[in-house]
Amino acid sequence: MGSNYSTYSTDENYSFQTGSYPNGLSKESRVRAFHTINAWKKYLDSINGTYQLTVIDFSASWCAPCKFIEPAFNELSARFTDVIFVKIDVDELMSVAQEYGVEAMPTFLLIKNGKVVDKITGARKEELEKKIQKHRVQQ
């Protein structure tokens, strides 16, 4: 697709991604990547008690479907600014992936108030977009 993404770090525990979208525009992604369990747990504590939707992309650098869906995930993060988008590398934070029962990649979990409200396995952009629209409304 010609998309190229790189990661820049705000500290050793947390980073954002930047990249260029298929339309040639270069944008800063709103996707947060966590690199330590402590940073992930701190984030989970911060969203507990809120109904803002968080979408987690469990992926791996070697996973072809993960690379395929990454531009779409970044595009969704730019479109749905009321939703938090997170990326977790299963090789980097294996215990987090195991905690959520991730068995295939990519797996997307939608979380509200610290609880999983939906799950999508596979690189299915349309289904992911529908579920985001469904769950982003305050309930």
UniProtKB/TrEMBL annotation:
User: Which residue ranges does the record assign to the Thioredoxin domain?
Assistant: 5-137
Which CDD domains does the record match to this protein?
Answer: TRX_family
Highest taxon of the source? Eukaryota
The protein's matches in InterPro entries, at most eight in alphabetical order, are given as: Thioredoxin-like_sf (IPR036249), Thioredoxin_CS (IPR017937), Thioredoxin_domain (IPR013766), Thioredoxin_H-type-like (IPR050620)
The root-end lineage is: Eukaryota, Viridiplantae, Streptophyta, Embryophyta, Tracheophyta
Q: Which Pfam families match?
A: Thioredoxin
Protein name, please? Thioredoxin domain-containing protein
Q: Which PANTHER family match?
A: THIOREDOXIN
Q: What are the alphabetically sorted keywords of the record?
A: Disulfide bond, Electron transport, Redox-active center, Transport
Extract the signal peptide range. none
